[in-house]
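Hello, quick one for you while I still have it in my head. A protein chain has come my way and I'm curious about its shape. I'm sending you its amino acid sequence along with the C-alpha cells. I'd be grateful if you could look everything over and explain what you see. Here's the protein in full, and shout if anything looks odd to you:
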Amino acid sequence: MAGSKQLAVTFDGSFEGFLSILYAYYYDRIVPAYIQSEDEYQQTLDTEEFHISTDIKRAAQVLKGIQQKISLQSEDYLTYAFLAEEDDDSRFMDMFRYTLLGFKVGHMVDSHLHQDYVLGVHKRARYVGKEAHLLTGFCRFAETKQGVFYSSITPNNDVLPILAEHFSDRMMNQAWIIHDKKRHQAAIYDGKKYAIGDVPKSIQLEYSENEEQIQALWGAFFDSVTIKERINKNLQRNMIPLRYRGNMLEFSLTKW
C-alpha cells in the first residue's frame, strides 16, 4: 500500500459484509478512510482500494458484540441506517465510526449527538423507520389466481426486509409476495418463512375472479361516498404522499 494514499475499503454491499469490515479493523488492523460497496467504488488518484470479503461467522461475532457491549437499540439504529439510500458517501463511514464509539462507551453512544456521525446514523434510521411504518399501512394486497396475495411498493429506501418481517407476523397463515418494483426485488412468504431475492423487471399477474369483483365494489364504494365539493387534495398529499399512490388500490380505481 502506498503510504501517501488513503485506504478505500470495498465490500459486497451486504450488512454482513459491513460487519466483516469491523472485524477486519479490530483483528487485522485494516483502517478505512472510505467505505463503499464494490458496485459504487470509483478509483481516484489519492485512494487505494482494499476489498474485504464477507465472512458470515465473523459478521455474527461482531453483531453479537454490538448486542452485548453496546445495545439492542444500537443494533436497530445500524440495521435501519444501512437500509437508507442516499446520494452521499458518508453512510457507511458514519456507521463505522458510530460502532467504534459504541464499543468504547457502550449504550451511551446514542447520547453523543454532538458527533456528526452519531447524528447521521440516527437521522437515517429514523427516515427508514418512518417510511417502513407508513408502508405497513399503505401496502395493498390483491389475490392472484394462484391464491397468493400480491403487493407492490416503490419506496425511497430499501425497506423490504422490515416489511417482510412485519407481515410474516401479521399474515402468518397466508402466502404473499411484496414486490419492490424500484429495486426489482421481492419478499416471498410461503406461509412458514420468507425469502428475499431478485425478480424480473416485468411481472405478469392474473387476479382471481373474487379479487376483480372486490376491486370493482371498492371503486364503486369510494365514488358513491365521495363529496366532490369537499375534496381537499392538499390534505390528501399530507396524509398520503404522491409517491405511494401508484401502488394503492383506492387511488387507481377512483376518478378523483
Remarks:
- Residues 6-131 form one domain.
- The chain has two domains: 6-131, 139-253.
- The CA atoms of residues 23 and 29 lie 9 Å apart.
- The chain has a mean pLDDT of 87.
